[in-house]
Amino acid sequence: MHDSVEEAEDENDDDASVKLDEDVEDMFERDEDESGTETKFERAVGCLSDELGTCGNVSGEHDQPAMQSIPVFMGHGTDDEKVPCSIGKLAAELLTTLDVNVTWEEYEGLDHSYSDMLRDFVEFLENLKPYLELRF
């Protein structure tokens, strides 16, 4: 994973799969001697809540599925001049470290618009129907 947004912007990687850099420390990893039952996702929300000065309770009191149990599709064009593709990939990598099931697609030659990406997104949603029917 990238250490900074600047590093992600500088990257010129043609690999469209989301993969993590094994040498980068996972800030949400729990030490062996730490107690508690929080997931990485809950710890991440807690860290962000502390940073923002908000309440970030994500555990227990509701029956909605956990964020990381909902599949997420992320797609980005390689020729996007408004938001570099590497920033989208960085976001996908971050969600992956939080145990979110991310499907990442890069679209060669696509700028800041839709087309093949929209088609793939609709197909992704269609494939969620069985999942949603079981859940709700």
TrEMBL record:
One of its GO terms (cellular component) is cytoplasm. SUPFAM superfamilies: alpha/beta-Hydrolases. Residues 68-127 form the Phospholipase/carboxylesterase/thioesterase domain. InterPro entries: AB_hydrolase_fold (IPR029058), LYPA1-2/EST-like (IPR050565), PLipase/COase/thioEstase (IPR003140). GO terms for molecular function: carboxylic ester hydrolase activity; palmitoyl-(protein) hydrolase activity. Residues 1-15, 22-36 have a biased composition (Acidic residues). Residues 1-40 are annotated as: Disordered. It holds the Pfam family Abhydrolase_2. Belongs to the AB hydrolase superfamily. AB hydrolase 2 family. This is Phospholipase/carboxylesterase/thioesterase domain-containing protein. It comes from Pyrenophora teres f. teres (strain 0-1).
